[in-house]
Specification:
The complex is a heterodimer of chains A (about 325) and B (about 500). Chain A has about 325 residues and is mainly alpha-helical. Chain A has 14 helices and no strands. By secondary structure, chain B is of the alpha/beta class. In chain B, about 30% of the residues lie in helices and about 25% in strands. Chain B is built from 17 helices and 22 strands. In chain B, the strands form five sheets. A six-stranded mixed sheet of chain B has the order 6-7-8-3-9-10, with helices on both faces. The longest helix of chain B is centred in the middle third of the chain and has 16 residues. Chain B is globular and about 70 Å long. The N terminus of chain B is likely disordered. Classes of the chains: A mainly alpha (about 325), B alpha/beta (about 500). Bound molecules: adenosine-5'-triphosphate (ATP) and magnesium ion. Magnesium ion binds next to α1 of chain B. Chain A: It is found in: Cell membrane. Chain A: Pfam families: BPD_transp_2. Chain A: It is a multi-pass membrane protein. Chain A: Keywords: Cell inner membrane, Cell membrane, Membrane, Transmembrane, Transmembrane helix, Transport.
Chain lengths: ~325, ~500
């Protein structure tokens, strides 16, 4: 039992969780303007788009796939939302249409990957460009800003004087659903098997292609939800909304210990990674670090996140080895 | 413990008082072993006895916790397999270690390809040397095809070719024959004899005892990591050897019960997959064990894969209990009561870095569920139940399967499928790498399943196993069924004749 406690101590997702707490505590103490409720609500609100997409992305990476078109899907659904609003449609009709659009985007990715057997990295780099291009065709260089105020307020406001944005509450519900789906259902279990050894998963009667298709579709849906949230949160629907968001999402998810090769990781780790990245970005903005430098930091984190879990694993293997060597030699 | 006077030749390679532990598992304790030139030395022992660990220690994969490796009498430390290779030690590991994206030739000559001017790789020479090796082993494999997708038997052949590709003073082979049929084994043994006559020392592991008696002069037995004996094989009987391995007398190896066959459970009609197998028709009845024999490459595994739905078939149909199975859909085949224990446990049977519990659990994702959620308690008890029934040797059920010995991994694959309670069970090399004691257990289990009304189709390269267990033997040759032989007429001769296409049946 002592072994497993030790092994757990160096598990990467725990490390990231601890790191998040350390960064928050340090920032409270040392960064001016960090600890007040308003700033914290900004931190959370600005991190929510990454967090929302990180939910399905985590499941996708666990199953050994990736979707880089998410930010473009988000941008496309924001653009369509703006265009339809200009046409005079009600927001209650527009939102379902946009969500459906996200489903279609995800389905296209999924079909290309599962039916044609193309690598998801290549497919979604292609649709990354395609979906963004369509967004530009749909909305041009317009910026639509005059959405109904109650929606804008919901997407950017917070509960009273607390640090909790309204939108954080539905996110928590989605998070709970995703945690259960990945860690407590047969579906989630099958994703780990697919990611670790797809052939063995097929031999165990797991419907690999179907599961992947479901995942890509869900990812498209969440990406368009994020696009809608983004347009309302920043009160601006433009074709280039959320550009580059996929990098932050992938960086955060890998930082949270989801193995790029598939088959390993926890959603808790991924979300800790997301908010760690969000907190760092917030602190850097408060310290007037330039946007370019922030991108460099994200890049460095991405490299660290790929190295970190490996180093952690090696440490725990080395410890196991040392334990074995020092074990008594009588049985 | 040593078996010779100082008069004889000196050992080329020796282990002295070697110990090695993995966590709490003591895989080797104070084991010594000497390999002499011109001698084939057998290493025997049950699954998990420590044979592979000993070999990996000899080859520099593992560092011993205590003890010495002696090369020509001098204490040596191998820092890795490359060191051992440079010392003239060729090793065939139990689990093939080929690079799937490299060609067969590239795999064989990995890192030591013949060169042309300016250090460019001489592909022609590589190709030619590979062909020559294949010829020596009597197999037809295209040197330029990638290793991906090779059957387990072919992978083993490539590993053997790799080991033979340089002039080794010491050849170490960990279960090289586990997936081979009689004729390939005969070829391999021919090569081994030549090497021995040239003065190489050979260490050989196999769970097929008759092979040990055929080719070896000396046998060392391990039990639970400890050395039991090291002695000449002359005058020993199989029973003697088994007693040393398992510490007791063995029950019957082929405990076949007589069962009256019931209705047809699995019916395969005119099944064809172009270029792979053609017009294959057969039935398996409830209570029957049907053996499927044939040479490596005859298409036996491919038929099993198609029936289960891993590969699509081009023509024909498959019925289970009178209901047609969907083409290319393992999940529906499974739901209908079909189970397939695949031949390649590492690639197809197991998720190597998942726990024993969850590997067995993978076939229960539909059953160990409560209100749509996994029921961890049900999953654990199902997995434990079968791990215990098959006597899997493990430290904790939550340990990953890659910490298990080869034979114990195989038991986990069996457990995983038996846990589904199948109506029709297809087993592809069910006892590959399993020790005699457990082999008898597996056979008893198959026999019991049949007696309980399960229809069993057993693919095996181990002819005695087919003859001992099958009610009927189907034989394939080059993608076609060439014979159906009832138990009473099945002999080594009739089966081999059909398998090589010489049958009049
Ligand atoms: N990397 C490892 N980590 C932990 N335990 C291990 C590891 N490798 C081997 N073992 C354990 O050491 C013991 C001996 O294993 P080994 O593979 O040497 O057995 P073996 O005699 O080759 O068996 P088999 O006939 O099944 O191949 C087993 O109990 C096994 O579980
Ligand atoms: Mg072994």
């Amino acid at each position: 039992m002592a072994d497993s406690a030790l092994a757990r101590a160096v598990r990467w997702d725990t490390v990231v969780g601890a790191l998040l707490i350390v960064v928050l505590l340090l920032s409270f103490g040392t960064v001016d303007g960090f600890g007040n409720a308003l700033n914290l609500s900004f931190l959370i609100g600005n991190t929510l788009p990454i967090a929302l997409i990180a939910l399905p992305m985590t499941l996708l990476v666990v199953s050994g796939e990736i979707d880089l078109s998410v930010a473009s899907t988000a941008g496309l659904s924001g653009a369509v939302m703006g265009a339809l609003w200009n046409e005079g449609m009600t927001i209650e009709t527009i939102i379902p249409i946009c969500l459906l659009l996200g489903v279609v985007c995800g389905l296209i990715n999924g079909l290309l990957v599962t039916r044609l057997g193309l690598p998801s990295l290549a497919v979604t780099i292609g649709t990354l460009a395609a979906y963004r291009g369509i967004a530009q065709i749909v909305l041009g260089s317009d910026a639509v800003t005059d959405f109904p105020t109650q929606y804008l307020d919901f997407a950017s406001g917070r509960i009273g004087d607390t640090f909790i944005p309204y939108a954080f509450l539905p996110f928590l519900v989605l998070l709970a659903i995703a945690v259960v789906a990945l860690h407590a259902t047969p579906f989630g279990r099958s994703l780990f098997a697919i990611g670790a050894n797809e052939e063995a998963a097929r031999f165990a009667g797991i419907r690999v292609k179907r599961q992947k298709l479901i995942l890509f579709t869900l990812t498209g849906l969440m990406a368009s939800l994020t696009g809608i949230f983004w347009a309302l949160h920043y009160a601006s629907a433009r074709y280039d909304n959320a550009t580059g968001l996929e990098l932050s999402v992938v960086a955060a998810v890998l930082l949270g210990g989801i193995d790029f090769d598939g088959g390993k990781g926890t959603l808790g780790g991924a979300i800790a990674g997301v908010f760690l990245l969000g907190a760092l970005q917030n602190v850097m903005s408060l310290q007037d670090v330039s946007a370019q430098s922030q991108i460099v930091v994200t890049g460095v984190l991405l490299v660290l996140s790929v190295l970190g879990p490996r180093v952690a694993r090696q440490i725990s293997v080395a410890r196991a080895g040392r334990r074995a060597a020092s074990a008594p030699t009588t049985s | 413990m040593t078996h010779r006077s100082d008069a004889g030749p000196a050992p080329v390679l020796a282990l002295k008082d070697i110990s090695k532990s993995f966590g709490a598992v003591r895989a080797l304790r104070d084991v010594s072993l000497e390999l002499f030139p011109g001698e084939v030395h057998a290493l025997a022992g049950e699954n998990g006895a420590g044979k592979s660990t000993l070999i990996k220690t000899l080859a520099g994969v593992h560092r011993p916790d205590a003890g010495q490796v002696l090369l020509d009498g001098e204490p040596t430390v191998f820092h890795g397999p490359a060191d051992a290779r440079d010392a003239g030690i060729a090793v065939i590991y139990q689990e093939p270690t080929l690079f799937p994206d490299l060609s067969i030739a590239e795999n064989i000559f990995m890192g030591r390809q013949p060169r042309r001017a300016l250090g460019r790789i001489d592909h022609k020479a590589t190709h030619a040397s590979t062909l020559a090796l294949m010829k020596r082993l009597g197999v037809e494999l295209d040197p330029d095809r990638p290793a991906r997708g090779l059957s387990i038997a072919d992978q083993q052949i490539v590993e053997i070719a790799k080991a033979l590709s340089f002039d080794a003073r010491v050849l170490i082979m960990d279960e090289p024959t586990a997936a081979l049929t009689g004729s390939e084994v005969a070829r391999l043994f021919g090569v081994v004899r030549t090497l021995r006559e040239q003065g190489s020392a050979v260490l050989f592991i196999s769970h097929r005892l008759e092979e040990i008696f055929r080719i070896c002069q000396q046998v060392t037995t391990l039990r639970d990591g400890a050395l039991i004996s090291s002695e000449p094989i002359d005058g020993m009987t199989e029973d003697d050897l088994v007693r040393r391995m398992v510490g007791r007398d063995l029950d019957e190896l082929y405990p076949k019960q007589d069962v009256d066959a019931g209705e047809v459970a699995l019916s395969v009609r005119r099944l064809t997959r172009e270029g792979v197998f053609t017009d294959v028709s057969f039935d398996v009845r409830r209570g029957e064990i049907v053996g499927l024999a044939g040479l490596v490459g005859a298409g036996r595994t491919e038929v099993a894969r198609a029936v289960f739905g891993i590969d699509r078939w081009d023509a024909g149909e498959v019925e289970l209990d009178g209901k047609k199975l969907t083409n290319g859909a393992p999940s529906t085949a499974m739901a209908a009561g079909l189970a397939l224990v695949p031949e390649d446990r590492r690639a197809q049977g197991l998720v190597m870095d998942m726990s024993i519990e969850r590997n067995i659990g993978l076939t229960g994702l539909r059953t160990t569920v409560k209100a749509g959620l996994m029921d961890p308690r049900a999953e654990r008890s199902r997995s434990l139940d079968w791990a215990v029934k098959l006597q899997v040797k493990y430290a904790r059920i939550a340990d990953t399967v890659n910490t298990l010995s080869g034979g114990n991994q195989q038991k986990v694959v069996l457990a995983k499928w038996l846990a589904t309670g199948p109506k029709v069970l297809i087993v592809d090399e069910p006892t590959r790498g399993i020790d005699v004691g457990t082999k008898a257990e597996v056979h008893r289990l198959l026999s019991q399943l049949a007696a309980d009304g399960v229809a069993v189709l057993m693919i095996s390269s181990d002819l005695p196993e087919i003859l001992g267990m099958a009610d009927r033997v189907l034989v394939m040759h080059e993608g076609r069924l060439t014979a159906e032989i009832p138990r009473s007429d099945a002999t080594e001769e009739t089966v081999m004749a059909a398998a090589t296409g010489r049958a009049a049946a």
